[in-house]
Amino acid sequence: AQVTVRDALNGAMDEEMARDERVFLLGEEVAQYDGAYKVSRGLWKKYGDKRVMDTPITESGFAGIAVGAAFAGLRPICEFMTFNFSMQAIDQVINSAAKTFYMSAGLMNVPIVFRGPNGAAAGVAAQHSQCFASWYSSCPGLKVVSPYSSEDARGLLKASIRDPDPVVFLENELMYGTPFEVKDEMLQDRDFVLPLGKAKIERPGKHVTLVAFSRPVGICLEAADLLAAEGIECEVVNLRTVRPLDIDTVLQSVTKTHHCLTVEQGWPQCGIGSEIAARIMESPAFYELDYPVTRLCGADLPMPYAKSLEDASLPTAGDVAAAVKKALNVS
Amino acid sequence: LSTEHTFETKPSLMHRAETEPSATVSLTRDDALKLYRRMQTIRRMETAAGNLYKEKAIRGFCHLYSGQEANCVGMKAALIEGDSVITAYRCHGWTYEMGAAPKEVLAELTGKVSGCARGKGGSMHMYAPNFYGGNGIVGAQCPMGAGIALAHKYNKTGNVCLTLYGDGAANQGQLFEAMNMAALWDLPVIFICENNHYGMGTAVSRSSHNTDYYTRGDLIQGIKVDGMDVLAVREATRWAAEQCRNGNGPVVMETETYRYSGHSMSDPGTSYRTRAEIQEVRQNRDPITSFRDKILGADLVTADELKEMDTEIRKEIDDAVHAAKTDPEIGMEHLSYDIYSDDLGHNMVRGVSPFVQLPHKVTGQAVNRK
């Protein structure tokens, strides 16, 4: 069936709340307003005030409350209206949630999901258009997940809610309304979970490896279509999780194709692409490369508002195709 | 000897409260001995910690509780089974009160495997059942305490969460965020400001426009209690917990207390206050000396009994110090263990170079694992 990412996320939360009484959702506008992006639509009506809690606009406070509730055995889903606002609460994510299990020498695990839209939106300028994947993925103790398709959204969110450790779940605002075909058995299976830390080959190919997560996976698939018309076969790796990073899948692919490009919307410096390039350098796969790893990233600047400038700030399928041709030395 | 005695405590100051704790407090002989033993143990333990620090057996930060003992001992005496506590970095006394032996506290300070976090947490990160740390980020524990209280309400446990912070953290925005939500949602949390008058070296009058911390919950009822009197603290905490258990929470509680040491071991604690001030508190308001005088005067205990107890405590702490010095550090393999409570599969933990790949393993009990 065709399912939008929004409905896949909504269904995943609904099923996990039905399955486990400890699971509850809190955040700004998640209850009576039905979610700023309608991801929690209908949940308040179904589960009531106790399990779907509207908070005031107070990220540091409600993120801390969520972490405390997780310390004490509940399973909170803490929604940030967007991850831009999670900066108000990043201390609670990093210092309170991520580090406590290690600091307590294995005593106090923190089962919590921080979720919400991440990355570039459309026409909202610099403060509301930023990818935080590299920020959060830098921190040991966190798992960082970023789905692309509806299948990803369903399987990864269910897995994240069941996970006993803190998970940062990075959605994409512009993908919520996008429909994807999801197999009926996946939709019917209430235990459909995808393993965290495992990438998916979205499209096999032999000439070049394209590595991406979230919306840029679609850009890579589009580029692969363009290039296929010219006889270039791209292998598209959808990371799904950026920590732990499934580098093995990337390395195997690179060993086969001898070319690697990374595509993301975050900034170049210390980005996920930088990490992948470094990991390839540190592995025997480095000697398999016929051309240096190429990073396609958001441009190294705060997101501009004007449409023409905004468009030029993010990698497109055309940019990816051009970079692939350069790497393969074809024109 | 009497088996019970009634004392008059300094009346608490109240804010927007309809009831108040009685200033007349009854104390049994058993409780007198227990409270004295616990305060004296913390005093000795902290003195030992200070010495271990000077001997360089303790690394990094070390914040001593000496002078404030009546707070955690009085509060703990008012709790019932299942109540929880979260505090900031001045946590050694609380860790002991919540069940860790002095040896586990001191060995944690020296980074040894026998420490309560097996040497991986250190001075500011200690845990015990229903004790959620030991938190190193000033103020961050305030919303977390409200969250623990939310879990109590969610699970209908009838328990409360004591959420402690200092006069320094009292100005953190997230405290007000937490108070607002706790009041909106009737959470069973007592926000407790241990006012020792200095946030590091900044006196309350230089940090806070309103230094009546018990009034700073706005519409939330508040109480200010003499934090140097263990009996007053116990009664005030009982009253506050009762408010929460009856659905009249949250409560803001301020304790008027004092720390003898500097903020941490690197602070001699004399540039922003006078030696005379410290001396004055030690002589006239010390929580242990004053309690000792009180229970001796009431014939609840004998001087010999207390002397004997002091000897026992000294011995217990001496043994704990010995263990803290001589026990080993945790095995090197634990460097990469317990980062996640879930198996990481084939994923290794990177060491300092790509040539060092370390296995991950879960070794702890992971209380929220199932």
Automatic annotation (TrEMBL), chain B:
Domain Dehydrogenase E1 component, first and last residues per copy: 37-330
Pfam families to which the protein is assigned, alphabetical: E1_dh
Transmembrane segments: none
A GO BP annotation: pyruvate decarboxylation to acetyl-CoA
An MF annotation (GO) of this entry: pyruvate dehydrogenase (acetyl-transferring) activity
Keywords: Oxidoreductase, Pyruvate, Thiamine pyrophosphate, Transit peptide
EC number: 1.2.4.1
Swiss-Prot/TrEMBL cofactor(s): thiamine diphosphate
Function: The pyruvate dehydrogenase complex catalyzes the overall conversion of pyruvate to acetyl-CoA and CO(2).
Protein name as catalogued: Pyruvate dehydrogenase E1 component subunit alpha
Organism: Amphibalanus amphitrite
